[in-house]
Every structure is written in C-alpha cells, then in structure tokens.
Design a protein that fits this description.
alpha+beta; 6-stranded antiparallel sheet
Length: about 375
C-alpha cells in the first residue's frame, strides 16, 4: 500500500517542525552563551555596548550553527518518531499495511531537502553574515578575541617582493585575508639585512602591493616617519594569502570551486578547501543517515518501551558519526586520503548502519 499524499505531507510537517524546533533552541542557547562571553571579555573596552555585542553575536551565530544541523536532524527525527508512536499514529499506519520504509520516506525527503537548502542558501548567507560580524567587531576586541577572527591566533606571513623579503604580523584579518588590521611589517633587503619596521592601522592587498594606511616607519638611521598612506611590494596573490591564513569555513559553497582551481593553478595544496566543498556536497547524505539512525533507535522503543535506551542509542549513534567525521576531516585535510573519500565516508557509513539495523528489526 502506498503512502497517500495527505499523510506524507502530514508526516513531513511533523518532522520539519521537530527539526526546526531543536535547531532554533540550539540557536538561542548558543546566542545567549556567546553574548555572555563577549560581554565578559569586552565590557571594559572603549566602544563597548550591549547592543553592539548582541549584533556581533547575532551575525556570527548562523555559521556556528552549521555544526549543529546534523544533530538537530538526528534528535529532531527521534522526537518526531517518538511523538508519532505515542499518539499511536505509526501504529495505525502500520496496521493499514504501510511499511517502515514508506512512512520513513517523508522524513528522508525533509532531511535531504534541509541538506540541499543548507549548502546552497544557508551556508553562503552564514559566511556573509560572519564577514559582517567581523566588520562590526573591528577595533573592539583586539587580539584577545581571536575566536571572532578567521584564524586561531595572530597572523604571521612571510613574503617576498621587488624590495626584498618581509615578515608581516597582523592582529586581525578580514575579507579572507586581503585586508589586515593592526599590522607590523619587518622589512629586509635582498641580502637579508634588516631595513625597517613599519606599523600601520590597516593593509589592503592590491596587485603585487600592500596599501598601508596611517603607517609609521622606524629605522636605525632616522627618527620615525609617519605617512597617511604607504606601500610595500609583494609577490603574494589573494589566493596565496587565503591558503596561508584563511579558514575553509570562511568561503561560501558557491565560491569554493573557483578558489580550489585558483589554488591548484598557483601550485598550492587545496586539500582543506576541497574537503570543505565535498563535505558540503555530502551533507544531504549525512542528514539522510541521521534520519535512518533515528528510525532505527526510535521504532523499536515505540513497540517495546525504554525511553532511556532511546536517548542513549541516539547519543551513541551521533557520537560515532561525529568521531568518524572528525577523523575523516583530519585525514582529508592533511592529504592522507582523498578529500572526496574523507567527506563522503561518514554519510555512507551512517546510511549503511541505519539500513542494516532497520532491516534486522523489520525483516529479521
């Protein structure tokens, strides 16, 4: 017997509401904790206000929530399955001759739809909002708030140019590394002899040149000289800067293929960015795996009871997939295994695990 359209839409709505409910709950919790952390670290700084901090957190929470999507789907699906079972709706559905595969199909469609939406719309929007968050936070937190930046610590760049080699230290980076704030540059000549130290408020990457603003040049031969604008040559391209200091998560889904091609054409390793791209592509499969696992741990409980076992089973399943995903990312990011294998392996493993458990439970 086929699942009717009305019943399929009803089941789809129940799963979508449960998943979105958990996702929004996670968003509120992350936002509150993030605001409290920003208030703790920035309350004594010039330019601080609760409204500004709240805006910073609100803009950057969507990117943080990307990591929550698989777990929201897993536990939201478990909640939906349990709710339908307690209301005896699944019992009636089964009694009418509809199999577990048929009434699980609406949930799978919802999960795959969420996956497609998250990579094509949500991810680019979250990356854009994160960039706006960095702009709002500019000058407020300084070097202590590295978790607001796109790197994990202060940025060091070694470069070469027409004038010789130089080392750049930046306190904050924006726009994928093409704009640096709080810049200190140690410049050397072609023989490697130290020439000058340059401190500037900002550095913008142009074509084979860094444009510095409000720069102060220190040398051993004369007093410090101040310049409204200053320039220093570089052979670095925007691609090379991003590969050196940028985070793959700071590049949207639609821009990743172009950036991967640019990196490869420049002779740079693109493992991390290829892995991020493949991970996003594999997200619908991973979410389908979460729904199958939710069905596997929920439907047995609906017949035999045991809410504690349900919760434990869901936590264990989510933990296993999380560990597998992290190991795959480490191997793929280091180039030990191909990025496509590292990205798709957790989803394939999850689908096979869910199907195996369901086949054992339903068909023996």
């Amino acid at each position: 017997m086929l699942l009717g359209r009305t019943l399929a839409l009803y089941f789809s709505g129940r799963f979508l509401k449960a998943i979105l409910g958990l996702f929004l709950l996670a968003a509120v919790l992350i936002f509150l904790f993030d605001v409290l952390e920003l208030v703790r670290r920035g309350a004594d700084r010039e330019g601080f206000s609760v409204l500004r901090v709240s805006l910073i957190s609100l803009l950057r929470v969507p990117l943080l929530l990307e990591q929550v999507i698989p777990f929201a789907v897993l536990f939201g699906s478990i909640a939906a399955f349990v709710s339908l079972s307690r209301a005896l709706e699944l019992v009636v559905t089964r009694a009418s001759g509809i199999s577990v595969w048929q009434f699980s199909m609406p949930a799978l469609v919802v999960g795959i739809g969420i996956g497609v939406f998250s990579i094509t719309v949500y991810n680019p929007a979250a990356v854009w909002l994160q960039q706006k968050s960095d702009e709002v936070a500019t000058g407020l937190f300084g070097t202590e708030q590295n978790f607001l930046m796109q790197t994990t610590n202060q940025v060091w760049i070694r470069q070469d140019g027409l004038d010789g080699e130089s080392v750049i230290l930046a306190k904050q980076l924006l726009n994928g590394g093409t704009r640096l704030l709080g810049v200190t540059i140690f410049a050397f000549d072609h023989q490697g002899t130290f020439q000058e130290r340059i401190e500037a408020d900002e550095a913008d990457l142009g074509k084979q040149i860094w444009h510095l603003k409000n720069a102060t040049v220190y040398t051993t031969e004369r007093d410090p000289q101040q310049y409204a604008t200053f320039q220093i040559s570089t052979f670095l391209s925007a691609t090379q800067v991003r590969e050196s200091i940028g985070s793959p998560e700071s590049i949207s889904f639609w821009h990743l293929p172009q950036f991967i091609d640019l990196a490869r054409n420049a002779g740079l390793p693109a493992y991390r960015y290829a892995l991020q791209y493949q991970t996003l592509l594999a997200r619908p499969l991973l979410l389908a795996a979460m729904i199958l696992i939710a069905a596997a741990v929920s439907l047995r409980v609906s017949r035999f009871g045991g809410l504690g076992g349900l919760i434990l089973g869901g936590i264990i399943a989510g933990f296993v997939l999380y560990v597998l995903s992290e190991l795959s990312k480490d191997f793929g990011g280091a180039g030990i295994v191909p990025p496509i294998v590292a990205a798709w392996a957790p989803g394939i493993f999850g689908v096979l695990m869910g199907l195996t458990i369901l086949l054992h439970q339903e068909d023996g």
